[in-house]
Amino acid sequence: MALDPKVKPLLERLSKVVAPREDPSEFRRVRNQLFVSLYPRREAGNVEDTSFQGRNGEVKMRIYKGGRGIALYFHGGGFVYGNLDTHDNICRLISSLSGVTLVAVDYRLAPEHKFPAPVIDAEDALDWVISSEAKLDNSKIGLIGDSAGGNLAAVLSQERRDKVKFQALIYPVTDFKDDSGSMREFASGYFLTADTMKWYNAQYLREGDEEDPRASPIRGKLNGLPRALVVTAEYDPLRDQGEKYAQALKEAGNEAVSVRYGGMIHGFVSFYPFLDPGMEAIVHVAGSLRRWLGE
Question: What is the 3-state secondary structure (H, E, C) of 25-77?
């Protein structure tokens, strides 16, 4: 379908926010500021900031306390930017709509902390949630992530497949060697570009890392994985690799649902104040969490 008419003015607004790629720390500051500014922070709800000692130091988290079940949330940002505040509203919405306790993980970022540092933090966060120290209802555990965070959720679903009941992957990175049709067709002009993806990859990976299943989960062992919801956007260079991963999960005998949001761009869930399908996707993810973890 055609590009949603509400996307064009959003793209014009985003194009005015220039983040200098020659300085990753400044790029991070500008992008974080952009996403925090998208919406006023919601203060309602039982929310607690905490941390634990992982294998490579302190890992900060934000817990949105709900009822039965627990899900970990991994934010997007190309492994370069993003934090607990950039995705705070999304986490509050998912937790309140699903009734599930949500734990947002502030994993370490590239280029200061290259692969597999974020994966190690993700593993440590899940292990902490499972531990008695967390004092959380861990009878049913789910994983959620968008973009780079979707990559971590997919990888962790493989690394800890016996601990996880459900995974929700929102326009995930699943293949760092992707050269699909969508990567070429939507290479520029739709917020996330193919050129920017190459830059993100260079910040995160060293030569040869793209072959590692902990970087490209489509190269992992796909049998016996938790049921999955994969959300993609029509005008997103990552669209095809997300849908290919959902298909690979099904072919490996797993339960997987792939939902493409027509007329949408990468990041549309974060842009939910301006794009109605963003809220629709949040409601869909929350409903799936409630179904598989909260009941």
Answer: HHHHHHHHHHHHHCCCCCCCCCEEEEEEEECCEEEEEEEECCCCCEEEEECCC
